[in-house]
Write a structure and sequence with these properties.
- There is one protein chain.
- This protein is an alpha/beta fold.
- It is built from 8 helices and 13 strands.
- The two termini are 23 Å apart.
């Protein structure tokens, strides 16, 4: 009998990344599900869209990409982000009070999370109290054996020390990049080398894994007993939007 595929759930923002040259469907948890399923997992995205052309189009895009979704339609506009690129590095202007800020708690979403082998979430989708409460209830439904993958994914001012600490309390996998580590040093008053800070976070929050990515330099995975490092391959950068999400999906 064939081995059972792992079942992956991504919870949070579903949106259009709008570039000067066009738009593409995105959102970190949805990107995570896409990459994990491309590599052989089963999975679904849990999010919300508006009853508008943007929402209908993004649902069609999910179908074309074979991404299964538990996507609620709510009376708010579909999410979008204006992305500006400079030397391939993005900056974001994120529209507020959109559909994924008002994610309802549904029996279908609870059922999906309750049988998940891995659940991915981040800070951005929890900027609004409505979705924050929904995501916390969904995370509480995840099996103890599941990977609870917290990609901190800091954007604009949609985070706080208190929110990050609360979400770390649900997590057993934590991912951050070098820019985010600088912010966490300031928020948490952390000192020492990057490795010392990462090991301190791993120990304090009883994590199975801490993943630290340093852009075009290297990436490191820490566990309580081991460390694994790989240098970043040399490539020509077009843009880095979603690069971290592809790393997350491949890791799981």
């Amino acid at each position: 009998m064939a081995d059972k595929k792992p079942f992956i759930v991504g919870i949070g923002e579903l949106l259009w990344d709008v570039f000067s040259t066009g738009k593409r469907a995105g959102g970190a948890p949805i990107n995570f599900v896409y990459h994990a399923t491309q590599l052989g997992a089963d999975g679904c995205a849990v999010s919300a869209v508006g009853d508008d052309d943007w929402g209908r189009e993004i649902l069609q895009e999910l179908a074309r990409s074979n991404i299964q979704g538990i996507i609620s339609t709510v009376p708010y506009p579909t999410g979008r982000v204006q992305v500006e690129l400079k030397d391939g590095i993005p900056s974001y202007t994120i529209v507020e009070d959109v559909a994924w800020d008002h994610l309802p708690l549904t029996p279908e979403a609870l059922n999906a999370v309750s049988r998940a082998d891995a659940v991915c979430y981040g800070t951005l989708s929890l900027r609004h109290p409505h979705t924050r409460e929904t995501v916390k209830k969904l995370l509480a439904a995840a099996p103890q054996s599941a990977l609870r993958f917290f990609d901190v994914n800091l954007r604009q001012s949609y985070y706080s020390k208190e929110l990050i600490e609360e979400l770390l309390g649900f997590a057993n996998v934590f991912k951050l990049n070098d820019d985010e580590l600088v912010i966490l040093r300031d928020l948490f008053g952390l000192t020492g080398s990057d490795e010392e800070v990462c090991r301190a976070l791993l120990q304090k929050y009883h994590l199975r894994y801490l993943i630290f990515t340093a852009g075009d330099k290297y990436s490191v995975i820490y566990t309580p007993d081991e460390i694994s490092r790989i240098d970043t391959p040399r490539v020509t950068v077009e843009d880095t939007v979603g690069a971290g999400d592809s790393f997350s999906g491949a890791f799981v």
